[in-house]
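User: Please fill in residues for this 368-position structure.
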């Protein structure tokens, strides 16, 4: 994100649903993602996260710089664009409409599935707002997530970091948590794909566990970063993603990149690799999958992982075979990758079966 004013103090935003103006008290900035900046905020006395749409990756560097300079200097820092750069504003309105349409579609899908506890089980509920504007201005979009949700210490990355620091501490429990989290992630993305949408930036920092009374609820994984969701049939565009979790087909600087369901599948495999493969070789690459370094030795890395070697149950031959198959089919080139999440979910369920205690495994198989 280029240099500009950030949100501060009280701001008024217009609800896209009701059209009413709503007051938010904005606190500290939490971070910047591929398409949004995130702030701690409060509405009606309740804390949550306010995300501000700022799609600089959608523009080349010169256009992004010009667009950045066109921001109006509102005292509270809202992103409002001048009519002086109409050509850029037209492009901004296009990507903004895509962002809003996709999130409205996701919102509708979550509401429709609330009875079955499907999509609503994995995604936090949110509301959409627009910046307050004057004549001749374009205001950006805001997403409001009420409640604390996933916090920094409850992300999957925080879990993986602790696991790597001491892989021999409670290895069976930790492997079960890791596999269950990745299985839940795959089921969530399976539902997202079923609604004809892609995520495009799956990584351990973007999902995690809920927290209640200072206790991390590892049985309830949740995706909390929705910034990069787009229609599955979206036109080609710039590469969006994070190094280490981006498929090899997404070469840096590629102008016409076509993301697909296999884009997300590759990232799920990279997340699994990051969590369970703990060796001297992976430490050298920052515990990230590198297709050049690791592509031909996945079986050996599974067998050598400190987490896998830790106990007899963790090193079950069928579990190691299953993990190797999952990683290979996720992290291959598209031609050899899983075509959809259905087979991936089935293979992850098989892997999870081998690490569960026998009675729990029987219940899992019976669907209890």
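Assistant: Residues filled in for all 368 positions:
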């Amino acid at each position: 994100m280029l240099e500009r004013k950030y949100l501060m103090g009280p701001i008024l935003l217009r609800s896209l649903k009701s059209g009413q103006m709503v007051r938010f008290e904005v606190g500290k900035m939490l971070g910047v993602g591929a398409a949004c900046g995130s702030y701690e905020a409060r509405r009606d006395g309740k804390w949550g996260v306010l995300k501000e749409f700022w799609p600089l990756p959608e523009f080349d560097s010169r256009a992004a710089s010009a667009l950045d300079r066109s921001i109006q200097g509102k005292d509270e820092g809202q992103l409002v664009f001048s009519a002086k750069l109409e050509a850029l504003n037209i492009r901004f309105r296009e990507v903004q409409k895509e962002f809003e349409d996709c999130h409205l579609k996701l919102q509708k899908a979550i509401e429709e599935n609330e009875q079955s506890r499907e999509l609503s089980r994995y995604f936090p509920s949110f509301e959409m707002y627009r910046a307050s504007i004057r004549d001749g201005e374009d205001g950006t979009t805001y997403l409001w997530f009420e409640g604390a949700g996933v916090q920094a210490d409850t992300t999957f990355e925080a879990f993986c970091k602790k696991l790597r620091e001491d892989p021999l501490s409670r290895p069976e429990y930790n492997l079960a948590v890791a596999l269950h989290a990745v299985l839940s992630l795959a089921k969530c993305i399976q539902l997202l794909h079923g609604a004809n949408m892609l995520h495009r930036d799956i990584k351990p920092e973007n999902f995690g566990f809920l927290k209640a009374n200072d206790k991390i609820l590892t049985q309830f994984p949740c995706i909390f970063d929705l910034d990069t969701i787009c229609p599955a049939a979206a036109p080609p565009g710039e590469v969006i993603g994070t190094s280490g979790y981006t498929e090899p087909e997404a070469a840096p600087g590629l102008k016409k990149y076509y993301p697909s369901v296999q884009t997300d599948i590759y990232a799920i495999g990279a997340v699994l690799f990051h969590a369970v493969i703990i060796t001297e070789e992976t430490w050298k690459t920052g515990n990230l999958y590198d297709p050049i370094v690791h592509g031909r030795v996945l079986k050996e890395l599974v067998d050598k992982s400190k987490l896998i070697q830790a106990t007899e149950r963790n090193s079950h031959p069928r579990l190691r075979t299953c993990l190797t198959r999952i990683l290979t089919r996720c992290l291959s080139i598209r031609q050899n990758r899983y075509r959809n999440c259905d087979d991936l979910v089935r293979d992850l369920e098989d892997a999870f079966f081998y690490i569960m205690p026998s009675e729990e495994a029987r219940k899992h198989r019976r669907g209890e």
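For context: The chain is about 40% helix and 20% strand.
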